[in-house]
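Project standup — Tuesday

K.O.: blocked on the structure for the chain from last sprint. Re-posting the sequence here as requested.
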Amino acid sequence: MNRRSHTNKLVVVFGGTGFLGRRVVRHLRRHQFSVRVASRHPHRGRELFGSDDPQLQSIEANIHDEQSIARAVAGAYGAVNAVSLYVERRSETFQSVHVEAAHRLAVQAQQAGVERLVHVSGIGSDATSSSLYIRKRGEGELAIRAAFAAANVVRPAVMFGPDDTFLTTTITLLRHSPLSIQCSDTG
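H.V.: unblocked you, prediction finished:
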């Protein structure tokens, strides 16, 4: 398929303003897909990607709300679920985000006639794990496939890069640590 054939295909990226999601958005635009960035904070999408690209739009969408998801996927060729949660806070739990919201998104995508669904999970996801996080990631994969059998599930490992939440946090902690680490060349 040549690049031009993607021009009229719309892909919705849930979590499109996050670390991975914004890279997915840029990749899709480079390959001539139209992109709808679905986020609770659409202004972030406009800040990240600008508002001068007619093939890219930022909309408000909440993965905890069926109608919000339905509006986001309406007319879309594809959808990417790049929403993730690493620390539970109040009602934002691994169950609510990785299982329930993922299932909700898959159901709405299926009902809207979305042809391609990509769900970003995590390395080692396993519905039988003793780790709550890994178990809920695995249960999320099962929930996605129950609603959208042809969904593609990807399991990335820890991702590193500018403004990531892992390496950047570690470096910040080390810089403010009372221990000083010195390296010398004793060659």
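K.O.: great, moving the ticket to review. The two ends are 54 Å apart (CA to CA). Residues 94-112 form the longest helix (19 residues).
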